Amino acid sequence: MTTSELDRFAAWIEDLIRRRGFDIDSPRGGGRSRLADEAGVHRAAVTRLLQRQSMPDLETTRRLAHVLSVPVREMLIRSGRLTEEDLPLPALRAGVPVSSPPLTLEEAAVGLGVPPEQRAMFIKVAGQFLPDAGARGSVGSR
After folding, report:
1. pLDDT by residue (tens digit) across 95-141?
2. Rounded Cα gap, residues 55 and 5, in angstroms
């Protein structure tokens, strides 16, 4: 990792931290400590990153991503550790991976926790919302 990659990542994450309401500019603001506490990481890891001394390890990155509401994938790519080619997104259709087989209404009922004695009613009602009668047994892709 080059110094410029660390600088770019640190600048991006500083902005993100500020936008999430952590006061990291004031010595008494406590933003670094609060961020570290909420993420369950050492304050020193946050400080080293913000001072552009080192990149956080994978677990710290994962925890910071969670607290900052950023996908871990984005953190890893922006950090320069991995590329978009290393972490490709699956092809999606309606928010569901394309490679999955169709989900039946019965499977949907089970997945949603519909009690067995109410599944027939669920299937009948949900089937009315499907675009054609031939598709009544399935709900798009999983």
Report:
1. 555 666 677 889 888 888 999 999 999 999 998 887 764 444 444 44
2. 10
Give the integer Cα–Cα distance in Å for 10 and 95. 31
Closest CA to 38 of 54, 53, 24, 52: 24
The pLDDT value given to residue 50: 94
Q: Are 61 and 76 in contact (CB under 8 A)?
A: yes
51 & 101 share domain: no
| Cα–Cα distance for residue pair 79/1, rounded to 1 Å | 9
Same domain, yes or no: 30 and 72: yes
Are 48 and 102 in the same domain? no
Q: Which residue has the tokens 């999955």?
A: 100
Q: Is residue 69 part of a domain?
A: yes
* Residue 57: strand, helix, or coil: coil
Q: How far is CA 100 from CA 90, 103, 123, 139, in A?
A: 11, 8, 21, 12
Which of 26-30, 44-48, 68-72, 103-107 has the lowest average pLDDT?
A: 26-30
The whole-number pLDDT of residue 140 equals 47
Instruction: Residue 68: give the domain boundaries.
Output: 3-79
